Amino acid sequence: MNRKLLAFAQLTLISLLTTISAAGWQSEGATEKSYQQARRVLDAGIRALGGLEAISAIRNFTIAETGKQIAVEFPNPEPEYDMPPWEETTVIDFSGSRLLSRIKAWNQGTIISGSQGFWLDLRWKRAAALKSASLQNYPDLMEKLPHFLLRDAVTERAASLRWLGEGEFQGRKQQVISFVNRRGQQVSLCFDARTHLLTKYEFLYTDGVTGDTLQEHIYSGYRSAGGFQVPEGATRRLNGRVAQETRYERVEINGQLADSLFALPEGFEMVSPSSYQPPQPLTMTKIAEDVYLLQRVAYDNNVLVVAFNDYILVVESPELGASNTANERAIARIRETIPGKPIRYHAFTHFHADHSGGARAYIAEGATIVTTPGNKTFVERMAAAPFTMMPDALARRPRQPVIELIKDKKHVLRDDRHVVEFHDVGPYPHVKEEIIVYLPQHKLLFEGDLFTSTFREDVVPASDGAVLLADKIRQLRLDVEKIVGVHGRLRPIEDLHKAIEMRNRLTVKQPQQTGRESRQ
């Protein structure tokens, strides 16, 4: 990571006054000068791509890319990371308000045509209607080409343009400006000083695991396509670590698009909408004696709460987005429901952020973290991460994490009335270490991303993880009657068996799934 560019990005998030001072402008009209200089740089960058008039007239574009990715789905929190192959196709038709996105590694796709859209399970040929079908919901797909990022900066967000200064990236001089995008992020744009082409854009945000985080989107080289300069590929980095790296194998602008691209593929089964109404966020539901499910802590993520005689165990700490307050709110809800007992233990099923990203809140509470050996360094690194932009509970009350490791694949917490078993059932493609939580007295099992059942009444074909879960239940001789997932609702064990039967019927016609476990 270039230190000069990181310094510029940090300055944009401190305040405009700091930016002006760093540029050496103390006189009246400094803000206007900053805007004017930034506007000149942006206008030159738009001309280098093909010009604002031509960009605004783009009817459609197609990108086919290949490469590798880590994202949040790598199976091991420590280097070297496993980077599965990546293959993605994106087609956006502005003139018809249509979209096609296919990600082969995930066996998933999205199609939109006007106000109608569908999510596609490419493996099992199932489709579900989207609640909101709009191109505006997919800004990340638009920004695969820098043209639309710069167009929006000049046509919609020009008042926020500011000059940051000059820097260097990969040995080339850069001109750096900033603006506030439609998502409210203050984004730095780095332009090659010689070609005026956009080298990268970047912004700072607070991540639950890594704290202050610089996200960079780097465009690797340019070539001509359809009368425009387009990138040869793209790289996404988080704090200097490559998260995704792809090459644009094909870029077409204003091509002829077949209507069939945006139609529901033949042979796909439509999954009917569920009549089940998910609970309100932070709903605390008692599911057994001294056992609670805190539902929808973050998006659809559930948290298991067990009240022992003298203390509380909490399993899962999901944190999504940049607020980093979901688990502090969850702790307050737990205290309200179970007053007078400390939260002594906290565990998460695996290290992905939607399961562990809020663990810092429990470390701040003084809870002991129960986890697998491979996650020890992960927890320590999370606890030590800098949270200067958006201080959380641990930043306000620093303390070292206390970690209790699960040895020989099993760990038990008990008192004279309660027993909770932790079993490490990994490895499998999703992660190398995966905890399931078994409450023998209640014949209840809590899991994350294995049998992900959502809030639907019906059953979907079992994932590889669900098959693994059924095998582990048999091998460990667990007497399970009910399963509750981190994503979804309480279900009878029979639903797991039905899902596997459905998978077995369809497997004859479908290839074996590889790569990421899709969320079902």
Describe the structure concisely for a colleague.
The protein has 520 residues and is α+β, with helices and mostly antiparallel strands. It has 13 helices and 29 strands.
Under the CATH scheme, the architecture of the largest domain is: Clam
The figure for the number of domains is 2
Distance between the termini: 37 Å
Oligomer: single chain
Tally the helices: 13
The gross shape turns out to be globular
**CATH homologous superfamily classification of the largest domain:** Lipoprotein localisation LolA/LolB/LppX
What radius of gyration results from the CA coordinates? 25 Å
Counting DSSP E segments of at least 2 residues, the number of strands comes to 29
Main β-sheet description = 14 strands, mixed
Mean pLDDT: 89
Percentage of helical residues? Answer: 10-25%
CATH class of the largest domain: Mainly Beta
Strand order of the largest sheet: 7-8-9-10-11-14-15-1-2-3-4-5-6-16
**CATH fold naming of the largest domain:** outer membrane lipoprotein receptor (LolB), chain A
Low-pLDDT runs: 1-25, 512-520
- Could you say which structural class the secondary elements and strand pairing correspond to? alpha+beta
Strand content: 25-35%
